[in-house]
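2024-03-11 09:14:02 INFO worker-7 job=invfold-0412 stage=load source=structure_tokens
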């Protein structure tokens, strides 16, 4: 079945079974490999993308569920975005595998909450990091908040 989708502000048309997870459409059909496969059950968050600005686990999101919605992957995040800048400055990644999902979760958090509390950060940043970089992730979210505030 043919599916039309908008990813990172570009229009695409792909041939895929309706139950194909968005993750595999992004990686195998569109060659957008920044989104990672982790658990395959939507639990770890390595596959997080934004659909109409909301974080979604793409490994468990069938392509047929997209209805004129826009998808943002890590490739679509501006390298000058405060979250990306903070991630670089804090040097968050160790192995880096979960970082695209972590960054997109942080982008979502800051888009919705201009001054997140510790509870907001804990609630929004539910992605699993097998390297345990949670303290660095928290520092990067705090720095992102400062950078975004200076930008405004």
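2024-03-11 09:14:09 INFO worker-7 stage=emit residues=152
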């Amino acid at each position: 079945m043919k599916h039309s989708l908008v990813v990172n502000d570009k229009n695409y048309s792909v041939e895929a079974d309706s139950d194909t997870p968005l993750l595999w459409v992004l990686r195998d059909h569109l060659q957008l490999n920044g989104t990672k496969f982790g658990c395959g059950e939507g639990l770890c968050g390595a596959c997080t993308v934004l659909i109409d600005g909301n974080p979604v686990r793409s490994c468990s999101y069938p392509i047929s569920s997209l209805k004129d919605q826009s998808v943002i992957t890590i490739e679509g995040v501006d390298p000058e975005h405060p979250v990306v800048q903070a991630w670089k400055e804090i040097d968050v990644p160790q192995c880096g595998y979960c970082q695209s999902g972590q960054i997109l979760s942080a982008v979502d958090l800051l888009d919705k909450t201009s001054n997140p509390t510790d509870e907001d950060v804990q609630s929004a940043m539910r992605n699993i990091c097998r390297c345990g970089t949670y303290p660095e992730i928290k520092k990067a979210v705090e720095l992102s908040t400062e950078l975004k505030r200076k930008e405004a």
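2024-03-11 09:14:09 INFO worker-7 stage=report msg="The chain is about 35% helix and 15% strand."
2024-03-11 09:14:10 INFO worker-7 job finished
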